[in-house]
Amino acid sequence: MMSQLKFCSRRSPVVCSSGCVASSQPLATNVGLDILKNGGNAVDAAVAVAAALNVTEPCSTGIGGDCFCLYYDASTKQVHGLNGSGRSPRSLNLELLKEHGFSEANPPPLLHAHNVTVPGAAAGWCDAVALYGSKKLSMQQILQPAIEMAENGFPVSEIASYHWKDNIHALQTPGNQHGKDLLIDGQAPDHGQVFHNPCLANIFKELAKSGKKGFYEGHVAKAIVDAIQNNGGVMDLEDLKSHVTEEVEPIVTNYKGVNIWEIPPNGQGITTLLALNILENFNVKEMGHNSAQYLHVLIEAIKISFADTLWFCADPEKTSVPTTTLLSKSYARDRSKLIDLQRVTARHKHGNPFLVGSDTVYFTVVDAKGNACSFINSNYKGFGTGLVPDSCGFTLHNRGAMFSLIPDHPNCLAPGKRPYHTIIPALATAADSGELLCSFGVMGGFMQPQGQVQILFNMLEFGMNPQEALDAARFFVELNQKSDAWYAFLEDGIPQYITEELKAMGHAVMLPVTGHRRSIFGRGQIITKGDWWRQSKLASSNDVFWAGSDPRADGCAMGY
User: Fold this and answer.
1) Is the pTM of this model over 0.70?
2) Are strands 545-549 and 154-155 parallel, antiparallel or unpaired?
């Protein structure tokens, strides 16, 4: 039965030398490979994959959402960052929400149009290609595979079909008259059923022809604004027209000679780096992979990291974010002392760094020259708000739900502000040489930094290859806002006796998580350059790419 989603096969890592793509959907992976073979570089291919995934997984991602991108330039060994997240409408503030009956205690429902921030993906795609693309392919050539797939139709994959059905309510809300454009006779497509999206193909054609203006001005912009305002929102044409992507300086920390790179706040990548800095103060390898002691220390480090980022991570254009101090090793040493090796600490408060001397698809591409693009694109929750603008074939995201409605909170809603963002691409380079080690990420809300730490340790500390690192059972910790308590979810594959030991330490353990519920552990992709993760000193080639794709998704890694 589909609902059981049994995990009973194994997969070898993909090894190749001329280019590699890893994504959550085989058709999209193949699109990326074709772009590489046609002379495109890693960024060109990544944008083509982003568009293809909008076609094949509209229940996770799309041009109505946001994106972030890290680009490793092999010729300069530099890491570049793009923040493709949008801002709140300039006329939306706490007072207006209050007039509409909303407050901290009663926030707008997830599907409410107030949660739509300006969709940044379209500009992010265009700017990534303009800044870092090969200049050999036009936007028309890059988007053409997705256009053809949307027009000609494609058979829907198993996990995508499940989530399409699971989130169908978002497309059927009163007032959402075009939600039916993402359904077949009012129903979500079955596994293997062919789905067509000619409206989305036309949007991609407009973007290819007119660039960013084709999305943020003209008839597309008007359709977006109409969909929002007809459903109680306040975004206007000027909000869309004034949107800009931001080039950002990536943030980095050194973990045992490996530099881990993330997008700075308003992205939550800082959570990963905080956790790594804290965990550097413990001998995690000696504890044993997924032992009770190991899981306990990682869980506690993650909780401390979130205590900081859920407070400090906000739009740095609107509030002061103490990123440098938060990422200092001395701050991490102080925070690591909060971990009791024998017992759970029920609640961690955010630190005070000011006193010391921040649903989705993730995919990655590495090209023949060794350039790497770590890319993530999201609607936030499933179909986002589910609102489909007239004749557009995509849904508008609900990223604005991530704003705090507490007036003195750094991430409090304000006009023209970017919210705390969960989506985080990552890269790893050698601290001494600057050589690329891997491009990786794990999609899935607050799971993302947790997944990144776990798969990194699987390779760095325990010598797993990229596929093994993704296959291994994971944990996920979540703060229940109502009870103010942390819950630890353990994936099927972590033995019962480990669970009992964690409970004895005071963890509130929820287990075992099986079947489609495994989606809470995220879906990751990894491409490494060389086999640096091997613990033995065998002769190896840095010219070989090794790739893994998460078994919790429909996708695959492919190379040539």
Assistant:
1) yes
2) unpaired
